[in-house]
Design brief:
With about 475 residues, this protein is α+β, with helices and mostly antiparallel strands. Helices cover about 45% and strands about 10% of the residues. The protein is built from 14 helices and 8 strands.
């Protein structure tokens, strides 16, 4: 307790730290947090502290306690002053700072030194905390249950070495602040278990791709034609003889000689402004399309039998993400995933009807991954027991291995029952093999008032060299071409 005699304010402030419970709590919180932070930083520098949660504790939780302690210290001193005033232990009406007084100089010098030290700690931790919240580990692994499907898809995408924030936030303070405010709502949704299952694609909230994608990719450049070879395993017949399709994709772009735009990238050129309005929030049903040409003239194409667009829906300028809507979080169809595993030899292609059997197994409805791994195996064994008993007797080990690969490399990478993510939850608009894609507009049903329509001329986007032809049926020229393409 503070004695009843009159005391100076500085003495009361200093002693108040130890006579007020809040002051003592503040000193303890600050001291313990500082020690733990220093220990964590040393262990991290030595490589002894890894994982996503150590960043949460080191750069967010402990600094929070450290700052809370710093706030409680003056609050405790203030309460001690008020208590002393009530008991008459201090009667001065204002704070007097006299630097000619050695005691004042020592006291305020001590406070200044502590303030500089604490400011340095908070600054370093704020800087590190900022980088931690921008890291892939923070985005993908902190909320493991929620983000696990997206993180897995991101890790095997073409953008696996591009950090999440480069696409979802980009440069600039405004989008950074917007993303952090959105992040707070998401943290609260996770805490109270009210988040959506599955997580909706950030269609409306995503930053324009001209401010993110085009920092690395430039559609204005003339890309010309690109050779693409697609191999597919038929569901019937030998899997050792895949069907091949080879085509030239007319990517196009701006021709430096003529200045005109051609090919697929015509849609996002500077000369032609393509806008649209969709009937649904996922932009899968496009009703109105407006094209503004270089001379300023405008044509509007409408699909009359499509549902009406929402009232006052704005026109959206077409950009990269309208076709490349899954650039980093790519979910496959069963056919694509199974074909890859057979073509790579991970699933024995000599097993008869192997694609049909695997597809039947992985497209079943399972409540969890644990249930799927056992049922996929039993489904494959049951199929061969019924349809090819001799093959089961001779190649049971290969069938079991195929079941293991079907779960680990096909099913578990694309289906997540706990998040209600199935095979076609997140369709890709790139092309038209997996979803409507290009046919959302190029369907010959969008027409101008004069009757002109957007056609489905295949040659406008690609030219076939080989189409759905068995590899064994290719001529020597096609074989050499495909060998060169590989």
């Amino acid at each position: 307790m503070i004695s009843g005699r009159k005391q100076s304010l500085l003495s009361l402030i200093f002693r108040g730290l130890w006579t007020s419970r809040l002051g003592i709590l503040g000193v303890l919180l600050t001291t313990i947090s500082a020690c733990l932070i220093a220990t964590a930083l040393i262990l991290e520098a030595l490589g002894m502290l890894t994982g996503s949660y150590h960043g949460l504790v080191t750069y967010m939780l402990l600094p929070g306690f450290f700052i809370l302690g710093l706030i409680l210290i003056p609050v405790g001193a203030s309460l001690a002053r008020r208590d002393a005033s009530r008991r008459g232990a201090w009667s001065e009406s204002r704070l007097v700072i006299d630097f000619s007084n050695p005691r004042h100089r020592r006291f305020w010098g001590f406070i200044l030194a502590l303030s500089i030290f604490n400011f340095g700690i908070v600054s370093v931790l704020s800087y590190q905390g900022y980088h931690y919240t921008e890291s892939v580990a923070f985005c993908g692994t902190l909320c493991h249950t929620v983000m696990h499907p997206e993180y897995q898809a991101y890790q095997r995408s073409p953008h696996a070495r591009v950090s999440c924030v480069e696409c979802h936030i980009g440069a600039g303070a405004s989008w950074f602040a917007k993303s952090k405010m959105s992040g707070l709502r998401q943290v609260w949704a996770v805490a109270v278990d009210s988040y959506s299952r599955p997580i909706p694609a950030p269609i409306a909230e995503l930053r324009p791709s001209r401010e993110t994608c085009e920092q690395c990719h430039w559609p204005e450049v003339f890309h010309g034609d690109r050779l693409r070879v697609i191999r597919r395993i038929p569901e019937t017949g030998p899997a050792t003889d895949p069907e091949l399709t080879a085509m030239l994709l007319h990517v196009g772009g701006r021709d430096s000689k003529t200045g005109s735009y051609t090919g697929i990238h015509w849609h996002v050129s500077d000369n032609n402004r393509v806008e649209y309005r969709a009937s649904d929030d996922k932009r899968r049903v496009i009703r109105d399309i407006r094209v503004t040409k270089p001379d300023g003239s405008t044509e509007v194409y409408v699909k009359e039998d499509a549902p009406p667009v929402p009232k006052d829906a704005p026109w959206r300028l077409m950009e990269c993400i309208d076709c490349h809507n899954r650039p980093s979080h790519i979910y496959e169809t069963p056919d694509v995933a199974i074909d890859r595993e057979i073509l790579l030899g991970r699933i024995d292609p000599t097993l008869p009807d192997i694609k049909k059997a695997v597809k039947q197994a992985v497209t079943g409805s399972y409540g969890s991954h644990d249930a799927a791994v056992a049922t996929i195996k039993s489904s494959l064994l049951a199929y061969y027991r019924k349809q090819h008993p001799q093959v089961l007797a001779e190649k049971k080990t290969a069938i079991i291995e195929a079941a293991n690969i079907a779960f680990s490399n096909v099913y578990s990478r694309n289906v997540f029952p706990h998040m209600r993510i199935g095979w076609h939850t997140y369709p890709s608009h790139l092309g038209h093999y997996r979803d409507l894609g290009c046919f959302r507009c190029h369907d010959e049903e969008h027409e101008t008032p004069e009757g002109e329509s957007i056609d489905q001329d295949c040659d406008a986007c690609h030219s076939f060299i080989v189409e759905n032809t068995r590899q064994s049926k290719l001529d020597d020229t096609s074989k050499r071409l495909l060998l060169w393409a590989n």
